[in-house]
Amino acid sequence: NLINQSIVSFRPIEDLREQQMIESKMRGGTIHMSVHFDDNTMAEAMERAMRSGDKEKIVLQLLTINNVQRQMLRTPYKVRYGKDLEEQIAKSLGGDLEKLALSLMNTTTKEDAVCLQTAVKGLGTDEKVLTEILTTRTNEELAAIKNTYLSNFKKSLEEAVAADTSGDYKKLLLTILQGIRDEGNFANSARVREAVEILSTPADKKEKHEKYAVLGAANFHELAQILDGVQLKTGKSLEEQIKRECSGDFKDAVTALYRIAAHGKPRFFADQIQTAVKGFGTNTKDLIRILVSRSENDLEDIKDVYQAVYGKKLEDTLKEECKGAYQHALLSLVRGNKNLTA
């Protein structure tokens, strides 16, 4: 249970405006396009690293360039060596390094689609992955993920989610998959008032998934006003209401929407990372998924928020929790390639 796992380590920043001020200075991702990139030269470098058996170097090479440039390596490598680059990387590596490298080689959209397919296939569903990906992606990203999922797995993502979830949780995820988030830059006062009214209405008078879908539909300029409005109207925070009215996977999804609304995506992912590295062993799968998916998006900001909330650098946590070449690769991902791309 995502919320039960993370509640111990969750340290709320009481002042919402403080968090918004942090996010107004967002710095973006750690991995950038390399101006020095040459696809043939890099293909040769990858082949040399794989032939030498230097596993760490194989992954570090991939971290000197961004995802688009990694995709550009496939054809020159195939032409020059007659082999599939991804297959050769998998043969050359193993364990956590292989998982990291293959995650880096997928396009961002395909990686999300693969993670979602892994979450719903077989016995049991990994609701944590479903909730994380579907509540944090933009409308454009969700549309691309749905197209990629359909082309790769021959059924719609909506079908897969509907088959493996139930109740209000299923209804909420299917609503989110419609791409309902308003992504405008201005708050609509009428929409804010309507959202406050909906969220202040007891859940027994309205289907819960419809009520809380409001958190996934309002734009981020409206959300702060909505949260303040609910507090003023009911005398209680929306988080308290969610704890009282929701349960199980549905509660986890609504809480994710609330935390993103109240504290922003960087804070949400900082907490997800903390959950992945604490407790009985590090959750490697979750750690790789989060760090790779945010590496060209907002990982610099996640690092800043992580240090502000948990009192230590993310790099220091990774040094404590991970070992060897895998640790070095994650540190390179988190530190980024900016110095190499200037």
From TrEMBL:
SMART domains: ANX. One of its GO terms (molecular function) is phosphatidylserine binding. The keyword Repeat applies. Keywords: Annexin, Calcium, Calcium/phospholipid-binding, Repeat. It holds the Pfam family Annexin. SUPFAM superfamilies: Annexin. The keyword Repeat applies. It comes from the Eukaryota. GO terms for cellular component: cytoplasm; nucleus; plasma membrane; vesicle membrane. A pair of annexin repeats may form one binding site for calcium and phospholipid. Belongs to the annexin family. This is Annexin. It comes from Pristionchus fissidentatus.
